[in-house]
Amino acid sequence: MAITTQQIWTDLSYGLKRFIARRIPNQADAEDILQDVFHKIHQNIDTLKADSKLQAWVYQITRNAIIDYYRRQKITVELPETLEETPGEAETNELAACCLKPMIDSLPEKYRQALLLTEFEGLSQKRMAENLGISFSGAKSRVQRARQQVKEKLLACCHFEFDRLGQVVDYRLREAKCSHPQRNC
Cβ contacts of residue 146 below 8 Å, gap of 6+? Predict the structure, then answer.
């Protein structure tokens, strides 16, 4: 004998209502979720293969409905189409590019090429691997090693100050230790 939605309502609605109410603080929302659950049960009852798994199936639908409820509750913030640069950001970026160029140019060819392709030309590491005929893991290693070498050169040339989030807030040149100073930056 096939189970009907009415039978499921009679047998499980009270327990489901309590299950939902423990997880959803707003009673009206909890009741809406219960109605949605039974709507889904009614639409999909013919997909249930074994009546013995009915309760597990119904509670899985209920858990999914609760998860969907919380996903819809996420607060989202719309960002403008374009973000404006903060004052001085363009100059800082130009200065950084000017100072980084000799450091990047001093890298071994395979690392310089990897860094230029991924960081400056916007190529994915996977695409870079295909273009250079190397494995994806080899491409990742090259990019990582190139970044590490540039980092070491930067730390040798400059003293950085960071905020609590790890963002650079200031720097000073260590002229004596810098092997690639750019006087005109």
Answer: 107, 111, 112, 114, 115
CATH architecture observed for domain 5-73: Orthogonal Bundle (1.10)
Q: Does the predicted TM-score (pTM) go above 0.70?
A: no
Spatial separation of the C-alpha atoms in residues 111 and 10, rounded to whole Å: 68
Which residue's structure tokens are 């009915």? 54
Residue among 64, 59, 69, 71 at smallest CA distance from 19 = 59
Secondary structure letter of residue 116 according to DSSP: I
Tell which CATH architecture fits domain 89-177.
Orthogonal Bundle (1.10)
How big, in percent rounded to 5, are the helix, strand and coil portions of the chain? 65, 5, 30
Give dist(CA 129, CA 141) in Å, integer.
11
Q: How far apart are the C-alpha atoms of 157 and 151, rounded to whole Å?
A: 10
Residues 86-142 have pLDDT tens digits of 555 566 666 666 778 888 889 999 999 999 899 888 889 999 999 889 999 999 999
